[in-house]
Amino acid sequence: MHRTFPDLATPLMHVFLWTEGDPRPVIARPEKGCGDCWHTDDASLTIVRHENSDRFSIDITATKPVRQAILRWSHAWAPGTRMMGDAWERSYGELEWRGFTPHRTLPWYLVANDGSSSAGYGVQTGAASIACWQADGGGLTLSLDLRSGGAGVVLESRVLRAATVVQRPPVEGESAFAATRGLCAGLCPGQSTPPRPIVGHNDWYWLYGKNSEELILEATRRFMSLYPKNTDVVPWSVIDDGWQTPAGHDLHVNGGPWINRNPGFPDMPGLACRIKELGARPGIWVRPLNTKGVVPASWESRKPRRPSKGGTCLDPSLPEVLDLVRRDIARLREWGFEMIKYDFTTFDVTGLWGVAIGHPMGFAPDGWTLADNRKTTAEVLVNLYQNIRDAAGPDVLLIGCNTVGHLIAGLAEIQRIGDDTSATDWDRTRRMGVNTLAFRAPQQGTLFAADADCVPVSPHVSPKLTRQWLDLVARSGTPLFLSMDPAACDARMQDDIRRALEAAVRTCAPAEPLDWFDSAIPSRWMLQGVETRYDWNEWTD
Q1: Confidence at residue 320, expressed as pLDDT on a 0 to 100 scale
Q2: Using alpha carbons only, what angle is made at residue 24 by residues 20 and 30, rounded to the nearest 5 degrees?
Q3: Considering the domain boundaries, does residue 380 fall inside one?
Q4: For residue 181, what are the domain limits?
Q5: Is 397 inside a domain boundary?
Q6: What string of DSSP letters covers 38-83?
Q7: pLDDT digits over 55-74, tens only?
């Protein structure tokens, strides 16, 4: 490894292990004659190095429930080094290059740049722990949250392979963007991305849950009237939240049962067929771990933060809950839907949004466990995603929303990489859309197809700003979903949409932000080989 950056092949400075009953992590002792084995009275950590590789795995055993493992490398960083990391699940406008901030948590991976070259450190996708990095002037720290919910996992005699760590040395002449893409590719040996560009319509930012079969077909016809005829890329029409309930959308009550009791959607298989007849492929939204149906009390999540009214959050560590989820997903497939967008699983498991996770042990609140406390939260989430993948079958595309990107990679073709954009609040779109796309575009095609959320075409947002966001996403090489309010679709906007769709159906390299070291909302981008500038300021016309 270049001397500017840490080399994780060097001996660890410290290892800490935290088991239940201890008030804080306990420093582990290195085993004599084995520099890769560390012990406390109640737990052990072993480094398993991969031959001829920059990878190593971390194995954990414990006689008591174990909460956390911390690995620390000593290093004197070069002055001026800046860091960037990923997000716990979706991002919320917080991503940026920044100098040393010891309390800053960088989930899953860290890229460091010294002004001329970049090195990367991360854990392989599908890990059995929730991982984050922290950097300070004296070194680099990796923290692994091993809990089951909010309490230590019970391993008994099991050896837990908590994570596999990957480091990527700097490459001469390589940009920080290319280095980040290279790291992401190295972290995900089994990525699954769609073979063709993803382009389509989603009704959410037009109807916000007050949808119906008639309105879905109207939206599909409107979209298809603007869609290019000279392409073999078949677009999508995705039915979002609201189809499952006759009560209209309620942020507190938007769960199942997913059997359709909404008179506004009288025939779901028939609707899927009618969407296909209009020239689009049908997609649908679902919240698999929340239901208003009657279920056994033992299925309910034990997390402390539960919906304030209506709906039961289900515990996916239970095989009975997974059986229900598989049946629900299979039903959507059998109805004829070819894309399933599943949502809220991180919140329904932990009770927290990613924006609220502020420290290495913040992924879930303390003091509770999953029903099966022999599995870590990460293992339970990966198993949930695998069950959904199996139920959907090989021909249905999956979109994860409020899913953990680093755990779902390889199990869903598309990942919503940022929180919701907005049809009413431009600042929200700028934070959740532009910032997200800039700093997570390296994941496009390396982890999954990276969906920065819809472009809302709305009368409540300046057309100038909408056109720019539309142009960026359309030429970014990432999925483009439009959500069109007809009140905003005048002749000029329709022309803009036509041009955007013509760009979006082309396969191209991901958009590269050129001024991302200087701005969290980059204005200079390389798009399909052309440098393009945007003005994201809402106060100019």
Answers
A1: 98
A2: 90
A3: no
A4: 14-187
A5: no
A6: EE-SSEEEEEEEPTTSSEEEEEEEESS-EEEEEEEEE--PPTT-EE
A7: 999 999 999 999 999 999 99
